[in-house]
Amino acid sequence: MTTMTQVAVPTGAEPPVRPRRGQAWRRFTGNRLAVAGLVVVALLFLFSFVGPLVYQTDQVHTDLASANLRPGTDGHPLGTDDVGYDVLGRLMVGGQTSLIIGMAAGVLATVIGTAWGAVAGYVGGRMDAVMMRVVDAGIAIPALFLLLVASAIYTPSVPMMIVVLGLVSWLVPARLVRAEAMSLKTRDYVLTLRAIGGSHRRAIVRHIVPNTVGTMMVNATFQVADAILLVAYVSFLGMGVQQPATDWGAMLSKGVTYAYSGAWWLIVPAGLLIVLVVASFNFIGDGLRDMFEVRGKNR
Amino acid sequence: MTNHRADEPAGTPDEDTTPTPPPVLRYRSFSVTFSTEHGDVQAVRDLNLDLYPGEVLALVGESGSGKTVTSLAALGLLPASARVTGSVELNGRNVMELRGEQLRRLRGDEVSMVFQEPMTALNPLMRVGRQIAEVLTNHTRLAKDAAAARAVELLGQVDIPEPARRAGQFPHELSGGQRQRVMIAMALACDPDVIVADEPTTALDVTVQAGVLELLRDLRREHGVAILMVTHNMGVVADIADRVAVMYRGDLVETGPARTVLLDPAHEYTRSLLGAVPVLPRLEVTAPSSRGAEPTADADTRVDGDSGAGGDTRIGTDADVGADAGVGTGAAAPALELAQVVVEFGAKGRRFTAVDEVSLRIDAGEFVGLVGESGSGKSTIGRCALGLVRPSAGTVRLFGADPASFRGRTARAARRRLGVILQDPAASLDPRMSVGDSIAEPMVVHRTHRRRQRAARVAQLLESVHLPATTASRYPHELSGGQRQRVSLARALALDPELLIADEPTSALDVSVQASVLAVLAELQERYSFGCLFISHDLAVVDSLTDRIAVMHGGRIVEHGPTRRVLTKPQAEYTHRLLTAAPVPDPVEQHDRRQAWLAAHRTSAA
């Protein structure tokens, strides 16, 4: 006996094309911390770059007459430092340095690292061996040491810091991209391109690199956070950008001298901002990872 | 333990005299719903199904039909996100209500599972004997050494030669078929009443598959175990199943005895599913002649004589196909010519010969099938032709140029006349490139079209593979497997190739989807008359398309001739074995084939 249920069947039909877009973004926003991180970073950018236009202070001339004022006195909401700069205004100027160096160094590291890793992983063989030994050697040199030496030889400036930081932090992204490139180059779409006569260059530029974007975006946010932290270290050690320019690390460094005399406003706000910006970038990175990894499963 | 020895399962019309035993596994208004980002998806809808002791019930359907979810429910293995209504009763107890220890005891003792991919189902770091013994010590009070002895015994039962030695080996030391036998031994270890087998032979070559199916048939006979077999392969169903349940998008659309459902399907979907299965021509079942006999058979048995180029058959061992033969620009220049090609892999000492002196020639407009099982070297041949693998010896000529040299004007020009489709629909398109950009890529690489012309050409190509032009702005992950392979086909045809090289383009697709992709390919071949090297493991797929077939085994071409002749009157012993091993969805014919296979198998084993 054959039993049968009547079900309408569109024969041979394939499932309709799935909807998309907005999903990845929804996954990112599903991560609350990532959204908070994004908001905080946006606010910090506003604070540093738009803030000085609204809250104008003199960050060039010292004013020893009003040095080390407590917060709230005389129109200084966060007080003044040891040479009379307004601390709130100084946080804005210092933020510009920290954010510019952090972002630029992060982008530079990502670009160099992606290019280096993609070529090494795709070409393979001896070329890969040589390129990766260069990376190994680079990783063996402590970045902080290199920065301090560079600062001792040249006058530390923002462009110099960006270049030095970029040059030391591309190594890890290069390794990540190389690993991905090695697996991507055996994918059918790369083989197909080669079979129909496409160049290696096209394979790398159009297929390998775009497919590492997920990994690299995530890594870039961590690179930015690391770079900001590294700038803070160097400045804290007194080898960062020099007065009257400043950054949050340098403010911290100077403030520590007066911390024992109770000048908490010289270190707490700057320290807080460093923690805030680094944590935010890390949260954004986590959110991006959620976004790209789930997408990866759909591939 | 129900030890039923009924030869025919209960419920068959001509067997009404035997009292019907109660079913061991019983689904009652069973529904499963998953919550996803796109809302609720009902995987199984109100399913009622019985599995009787000692029968083989095939649960058939295409991907997404809910057959795997249904089978996993028998072991209580549904993911936590599944919402279940209704019941699944095993020996009278509702599996859905069991928890913890009860469930653990149920699995193995009463019901066990054989998975599709034996390599991932076995622990690679553990000797197979111990893995089987572990099942025993987990479920019975057997002492360790007794369990080990029983494990060896079980390996013998699943027809693994030298069971004592094999028990001490690791999974990677066994062949795919042997690994699946080990899985079956594990499933058998505690004498379950039901074995759930989820596509147990899908990952195996057909000749190995035939052996595993034979084993399952024996076990059913000897142990009276009921088998719930999930499969998409109608040939497997015809080969082994007593009854068939057909599922379609969560609904059970038809159940009945295998013979009735396969020969006289009542439901429209079953009919279309069966219609989509590529069918081999009926084999003239005779004892296989020894290799190389009847060389005269070629000319007179040629059936597909419609294309003039396809007429001339060149047996693969022709030595006079010289290295320089194809360089000229004469009309008779072959599209692809391989002469005495040898490919070796590995470093010195442990060299492995993947391809051994293969010669093959494809003329313009000729559709040639290259068939073989995994490891036969067929894909390596394809890669040689594409220039992705450099042969260790011999020559490859693609439109007269050496494809392995990527530089140079001639190689580039030769590549411009080539189209490529590779196997994996998930990896054949760049996930970060829109469908339109992917299709346009050959035009960009060879600078043949301006930007605006490219868009028009892409739309035209999409239309020719029966996809809407709006697909161009989509990304691969939004498409189904069949749609992706059609996009691959559109890309391959972008430059009006004279030769298409297709490496298993449909092997990852459902049969109905495969049928539609193959139909598009055949239609386009008719329209544009490009030559094609079609690499496949499936003889039936090749049958409907090709003029000639070359059969590969162990790196050599063992048989080469017109399609119809090779499939109906194979001369090589291996081709015969391959043909009889491939199950066909007709239970009557499959019975004959099985007998022929058994006969051939016994002689080759002896």
Description of the molecule:
The complex is a heterodimer of chains A (299) and B (606). Chain A is an all-alpha fold and 299 residues long. Chain A has a single domain (31-48, 78-298), classed as MetI-like (MetI-like fold). Helices cover 70% and strands 1% of the residues of chain A. Chain A has helices at 23-30, 32-54, 87-123, 125-140, 143-153, 158-169, 171-184, 188-195, 200-211, 213-236, 248-259, 268-298, and one strand at 3-4. In chain A, helix 8 (188-195) packs antiparallel against helix 9 and helix 11 packs antiparallel against helix 12 (268-298). The longest helix of chain A has 37 residues, at 87-123. Chain A starts with a strand and ends with a helix. The model of chain A is unreliable at 7-20 and 294-299 (pLDDT under 50). With 606 residues, chain B is α/β, with parallel strands linked by helices. Chain B folds into 4 domains: 1-98 and 192-276, P-loop containing nucleotide triphosphate hydrolases (Rossmann fold, 3-Layer(aba) Sandwich); 111-191, no CATH class; 297-417 and 497-571, P-loop containing nucleotide triphosphate hydrolases (Rossmann fold, 3-Layer(aba) Sandwich), CATH 3.40.50; 431-495, no CATH class. Chain B contains 22 helices and 19 strands. In chain B, the strands form 4 sheets. Chain B has a 6-stranded mixed beta sheet with strand order 6-7-8-3-9-10, sandwiched between helices. Chain B has a 6-stranded mixed beta sheet with strand order 15-16-17-13-18-19. A 4-stranded antiparallel beta sheet of chain B has the order 2-1-4-5, with helices on one face. In chain B, helix 5 (144-157) crosses helix 7 (176-188). The longest helix of chain B is centred in the last third of the chain and has 19 residues, at 587-605. The two termini of chain B are 37 Å apart. At the A-B interface, strand 1, helix 8 and helix 9 of A face strand 10, helix 11, helix 14, strand 15 and helix 15 of B. Strand 1 (3-4) of chain A pairs antiparallel with strand 10 (251-257) of chain B, so a sheet runs across the interface.
